[in-house]
Design brief:
disordered N terminus; Ribose 5-phosphate Isomerase B, Chain: A; 255 residues; 10 helices; 2 domains; single chain; 5-stranded parallel sheet; 11 strands; alpha/beta; 35% helix
Length: 255
């Protein structure tokens, strides 16, 4: 499990570095990720992305709420000295350095439930299958116990299917699941639409990191190269994460 976390942290650094959003990946210093090349010198308060609300907000109940999609020690600063619980978004990536510090301080890590759960509203999932060879019923059955409403469709044209999914995803509580043997084409076509952030699911172990890195709202699955067990696991994890906001540092390009 520890090795998987390390891989996730490395991947996030490398992705942000490749996109020019962070300095090159490097070793941690005193348990913290290397600072961005363009970041300001350290101050007494933790460095946070500019948002309309604070990234971390401690409460009098001993709980610290963090709204960032990637939680690092630089994000938390010395806030952990006063809390017993750290609450992060459902799809947040928590670095190994943070997890180690939480364990050392006996602080409980809690993944917050999406806002939709508080209101009792269900997420609407549109499951689109391209062609007639793949039977969507078993995949739909695997998701029947999840708090979602599933609508299953078939399509013969990948262009039309991605166009239709893009219109559906304009809703604030919608997710899309597209099953196609042409996943690369599907991802490219889908991501041409404003507000669509599609990812290609290739492995259940890395799906959470891939989806969280862009705030994915559309998952593309290829039944010809992936076992049904993997398809089912990826679909379940994608749905349980719920609709996610695009990371702050990527909104200018992806929204």
């Amino acid at each position: 499990m520890a090795d998987r976390s390390i891989d996730v942290e490395k991947m996030v650094r490398e992705v942000l570095s490749d996109l020019g959003l962070a300095g090159p990946a490097g070793p941690d210093v005193a348990g913290q990720p290397q600072a961005d090349a363009q970041s300001s010198p350290p101050t007494s308060s933790p460095t946070r992305h500019e948002t309309t609300a604070p990234a971390a907000s401690p409460s009098t109940s001993g709980e610290l709420v963090v709204r960032s999609s990637v939680v690092t020690m630089a994000e938390l600063g010395d806030e952990l000295t006063r809390v017993r619980r750290l609450v992060v978004p459902p799809q947040a990536l928590v670095t190994p350095a943070v997890r180690d510090e939480l364990a050392r301080r006996n602080v409980t890590l809690v993944y917050d439930r999406p806002a939709r759960a508080a209101s009792g509203a269900k997420v609407r999932l549109v499951l689109t299958v391209l062609g007639s060879r793949f039977d969507p019923v078993p995949l739909g059955n695997a998701l029947e116990n999840e708090p979602i409403e599933i609508e299953t469709r078939r399509a013969d044209c990948l262009v039309a299917a991605t166009d239709e999914l893009a219109r559906e995803l304009a809703g604030p509580v919608s997710l899309g699941l597209l099953v196609s043997t042409y996943p690369a084409v599907a991802v490219c076509l889908a991501n041409r639409h404003r507000g669509v952030r599609a990812v290609w699911g290739v492995d259940a172990g890395r799906l959470a990191a891939d989806a969280a890195s862009v705030g994915a709202n559309l998952l593309v699955l290829d039944p010809s190269s992936t076992s049904f067990f993997q398809l089912k696991q990826m679909a379940i994890r994608f749905v349980r994460a719920g609709p996610a906001a695009c990371p702050q540092e990527l909104r200018q390009r992806l929204e």
